[in-house]
Amino acid sequence: VTNKISYGTKAAYQQHGIWFARNGYVCLVIDTLESGEILGEHHGTYRQNMWWWNSRGYTPAGVECWNGMRALDYLSTRPEVDTNRFGVTGRSGGGAYSWFVTAMDERIKAAAPVAGITDLENHVVDGAVEGHCDCMFFVNTYRWDYPQLAALAAPRPLLICNTDDDGIFPLDGVVRLRDKVRGVYDLLGAGDKCGLVITPGGHKDTQELQVPVMRWFNKHLKGEETLIENAAVKLFSPEQLKVFATLPGDAVNARIHETFVAPAPTAMPMTKESWGRARSNWLSALDEKVLGGWPKTSPNPKIVGGAGGSSGGTASGNIDLATDSVTRIRITWAASTRLKPERLILRVWNPAETNAHPHGPYGSAVVGDFAPRGMIAGDQKKQTQLRRRFMLLGTTVDSMRVWDIVNVIQAMRMSETNQMMFGMSGGVGKLPIRLEAEGDMAVNALYASLFAPVDELVLTNLPKSHMDGGPDYLNVLRILDIPQAVAMASERCKVELRGANEADWQYPLQTAKALGWEKNLRVVK
Q1: What CA–CA distances, in Å, run from 99 to 75, 141, 147, 476?
Q2: How far is residue 51's CA from residue 465's CA, in Å, rounded to a whole number?
Q3: What is the DSSP secondary structure assignment for residue 134, as one 8-state letter?
Q4: Is 352 exposed, middle or buried (0-12, 13-18, 19+ CB in 10 A)?
Q5: Would you say 10 and 40 are in contact if contact means Cβ atoms under 8 Å apart?
Q6: Dist CA 341 CA 426 (whole Å)
Q7: Is 58 left (phi over 0), alpha (psi -120 to 50) or beta?
Q8: Quick one: three-class SS letters along 302-358?
Q9: 303: which strand partners?
Q10: What is the DSSP letter of 286?
């Protein structure tokens, strides 16, 4: 960028294209989405609070990979191009897109990504993710580590290039990745086609990295192993490489994240058969592509502590629950000792509500309050980077909160829970459960009810869509949105939406009316 005018990635990396052209190659240098003449967005979750990217299943890495594949389509139309000898290289973000295009398109016959990949240990444990915008990562639906992506190049010639002091692609992770990928190449009898080049320095484009790439392509695309006699040098000013005199008015670059991944269709199934198919498909897809980051075992809550007592006609206490190997949830409960309990009210609080606790009068209800998992305290920037780590691991914070709520509901049916609730003769195991939540936690409670049965849902100020800034779950908008989840829940139990307008909830209202459970769904302003 010069004088607030973007000349594109091609201006910064022109020397590569020039060298290839001077040495008998046709070279196309692609402007990236965020650094092209027409500017787009690479930092949706990093700094723009666009967490709905996760829900939409969107990443700018997908656009960059798509552009690379379409570039191959264009090059295939050129008479001077040999379509049997395509190669791809790039540095940093360009290195990442080189990996993606190689994995996705078999037309690539040789690849030399530079400083564009490392493993999840570096990103998540060591914090390398904090140095990267969203364009470096695929939406990790199937919980892959990056050696699995890299291995998709095999057995085509692959040269992995990095420096020894790159803070955002640390050497130890690059070497771990290369060793695993080399194992795949060895199994295929192509070990000599998986190379590794490490040069001194930090995260920088250097001649020491450029020359091995040039030799790699000469060897594997031209069948030559000649010495590199001329350096890659820039010959043009950025202004000379500018394409557009005036930027096109119909460009979609700046808002491609709104359309690149289509949301799920929302047609209403109006027969029991079509509804049954839709419900089955939704639940299966939620399990596989949205909540697949849940622990592989079925919910199996374990009580790890608790205390209680009674005074002045009130019994109260707490139960500490383990919902997985590291997460602990405290349920604080209270009830009258003078009345026989007739129902259990579970209230889900935002983890930030640290002072939430049951309050009387309780009548004939047992009241239990809890907050699902939160995150380590820190400033907003730190919280953002923690949330981004979850996606790299194939989940989100809020999808794990749904898991916590499911576990709490199931814990209420356990005999051990009943024994710990002082004053509860007969326990709460058979009591009807009403689940209450507000705002973002109402969304989490809604989805939890699809996997752990409750008798009633009371949801206050429920967001109308995952696009409205509520909880993010990977890929959920590719399957359904909140109104469809409400329709499924209202088939199973009574649902009351408080602080809501009927106009916003026509999908579940009309579905319930058409299929015969309209009495289960109530919308209250």
Answers
A1: 19, 18, 11, 26
A2: 13
A3: G
A4: exposed
A5: no
A6: 9
A7: beta
A8: EEEEEEEEEECCEEEEEEEEECCCCCEEEEEEEEECCCCCCEEEEEECCCCCCCCCC
A9: 321
A10: I
* SS3 letters across 452-513: CCCCEEEEECCCCCHHHCCCCCCCHHHCCCHHHHHHHHHHHCEEEEECCCHHHHHHHHHHHH
pLDDT-derived band at 359 (thresholds 50, 70, 90) equals low
HSE, CB side, 13 Å, CA atoms: give it for residue 483.
23
**Nearest residue to 435 (alpha-carbon basis) of 452, 451, 456:** 456
User: What does the pLDDT read at residue 3?
Assistant: 55
**8 A C-beta contact, residue 458 and residue 434:** yes
> Running DSSP on this structure, what letter comes out for residue 2?
B
Q: State the residue for tokens 């919910």.
A: 299
Q: Rounded to an integer, what distance in angstroms lies between the CA atom of residue 425 and that of residue 412? A: 15
d(CA 304, CA 405): 17
What is the distance between the alpha carbons of residues 389 and 45, in angstroms, rounded to a whole number?
Answer: 11
| Cross-strand bridge partners of residue 293 | none
The pLDDT of residue 314 is: 87
Spatial CA neighbour of 436 closest among 347, 497, 371: 347
As a whole number, mean pLDDT of residues 224-252 equals 92
For residue 348, list its beta bridge partners: 370, 437
Which two three-digit tokens encode residue 208? 């020491």
For 154-183, the pLDDT digits (tens) are 999 999 999 999 999 999 999 999 999 999
pLDDT tier, 358 (very low <50, low <70, confident <90, very high otherwise)? low
Q: Which residues of 503-521 are buried (b: 16+ CB within 10 A; e: fewer)?
A: ebbebbbebbeebebeebb
DSSP per residue, 73-136: HHHTT-TT--TT-EEEEEETHHHHHHHHHHHH-TTEEEEEEES----HIIIIIS-GGGG--GGG
CA distance 65 to 338: 66
177-230 residue pLDDT tens: 999 999 999 999 999 999 999 999 999 999 999 999 999 999 999 999 989 989
Quick check: bond before 372 cis, omega within 30?
Answer: no
pLDDT of residue 469: 80
Give the three-class secondary structure for 522: strand
pLDDT at site 165: 97
Q: In this structure, are residues 131 and 95 in contact, taking their beta carbons and an 8 Å threshold?
A: no
Token pair in block for residue 472: 């993010």
Split at pLDDT 50, 70, 90, the class of 356 is low
Mean pLDDT for the chain overall: 93
Q: In this structure, are residues 306 and 320 in contact, taking their beta carbons and an 8 Å threshold?
A: yes
| Two structure tokens written together for 173 | 């992770």
Going by C-alpha positions, the residue among 37, 28, 38 that lies closest to residue 72 is: 28
Amino acid at 441: M
pLDDT at residue 296, rounded to an integer? 86
pLDDT tens, position by position, 413-444: 887 777 776 445 455 667 899 999 999 999 99
Please, what is the Cα angle at 480 between 282 and 272, to 5 degrees?
A: 55
Whole-model pTM: value is 0.93
**Distance (Å, whole) CA 27 – CA 13:** 12
